[in-house]
Amino acid sequence: MVEHIDMFINSFPKVPSEWLGDMVLALKKKNHQDFQKEREELQDAYEGNNLQELTDNFFKNKENKVQTSVPGASQNLIERAIRRRSLVYKNRPDYGVAKWPEGYDAMKRWLFFKSAERIANNIGTILLRAKVIDDEMNYELLTDYIPFFEEDPLVPTGILYPVTTPSADITANPETQWVFWTKDILLVMDSKGNPKVQPDNTENVNRFGILPFVTVNVREGRDYWRWGYGKPLLDANLAVNVAVTEMRLGTRYSMMGQWVATGQGLDDIKIKMGVDQVIKLPQEATLQAIAPPAEMSAAVDYAKFEYENVLQNMGLNVQWGDDGGVPSGESLKVKNIELLELREDDVATWQVADEQLYEVEQAVWEGKLPNRTVNYDEIEFPVTPTEQQAQDQWDLDHGLLTTAQILMRDNPDGYKTEKKAQDQINKNREVQRASAPPRVPALSAIRDAATQGR
């Protein structure tokens, strides 16, 4: 229900326009709370925290009891799909910077964007922030916040979000504070909205002069808030989990069956079942096990359909283990052409966000960062060793690749720079030359030398 609206001021009724405006604001507040709650449910499902509960909800009776005959399915299909869909930051981008300033960890930044891409693909609109803590660059991802707008309804000019204050007392409820940013203001408030004094910022001034947040939307839309791919994924995931649970029930009852006793004189007889029991029945009474029909193959096909349908709408191709054969790299590329095209759109979206956040980093770290570019790795499909060797040789012959780059590609953790890789190659060649047996001149060369010496 929409929260209570005060329609009177000092016992005098408000004019309709005033209380109508309050009702609209209250409705928007409720809708926003419901929206954020649904996004939190999607995030919990991605992390696998609530899938068991969501599945059990479909098997509760009027006493709110869950069936206990078989374990309810809690398969997590969302995480796999989101990971496969998130390809922009699958590998660390090349920013063209040989050495970053002290306190700036490029690996931390890459992992932050990798996580941000997955969360955005799951729940939709997210907010990125860069901040400096103890002379180190850090990052924050916000999903629960309230944007404020002035002229452009898609570009916020103010951000309000809750912050939980930690407490040394683990039994105490943590206090919620609110932080409000504009390009000019940085205001901290308590849970009731009263301003709090900032010892190092008594004037509540945003010293950066910009709004230090970047909005990311991975899907197009008319409004600021947009959904990711999580809603249809959760829908299909629940359908599959319910189907698998029912398949488990069907398997159990098909194997054990439901025992049914028919005939007269059974009302006062207590039947004990067991391999060590002798069952006595009245004359002409019968006892038999009735097994329900279990269309397992149809149920498996249905579960596959649910999963395939939602993944295909995301540009993902499903390869089942019973399809037979190992597809070549070229056939995989053809099958995933839609995914590659979608990735191109994603690269454009994230490149803008990456550059915007770097501008924020420059501002909050007062211009300590170097100029840079962004180059994302292309998607590579598996090929046979023979195909890879032929491609590498072609690239080497035409100056498109070096042996050091091949070593870096095959062992990215061991050789993070081309110089380090080339030094290792030179060292290996020296070892090979030192361990090679002495060369023996060919017999023809010996004869020629003897002839010339006459």
Question: How would you characterize this protein structure?
Answer:
With 454 residues, the protein is of the alpha+beta class. It has a domain at 384-434. It contains twelve helices and eleven strands. The protein has helices at 16-46, 51-56, 78-85, 106-123, 230-256, 296-312, 329-335, 337-364, 385-397, 403-410, 418-435, 443-452, and strands at 8-9, 12-13, 126-133, 136-142, 146-148, 158-165, 175-181, 186-189, 213-216, 258-262, 286-290. The strands form four sheets. The chain has a four-stranded antiparallel sheet, with no helix packed on it. A three-stranded antiparallel sheet has the order 4-3-9, with helices on one face. Strands 1-2 form a two-stranded antiparallel ribbon. Strand 3 (126-133) and strand 4 form a beta hairpin. Helix 3 packs across helix 4 (106-123), helix 5 (230-256) packs antiparallel against helix 6 (296-312) and helix 10 (403-410) crosses helix 11. The longest helix is centred in the first third of the chain and has 31 residues, at 16-46.
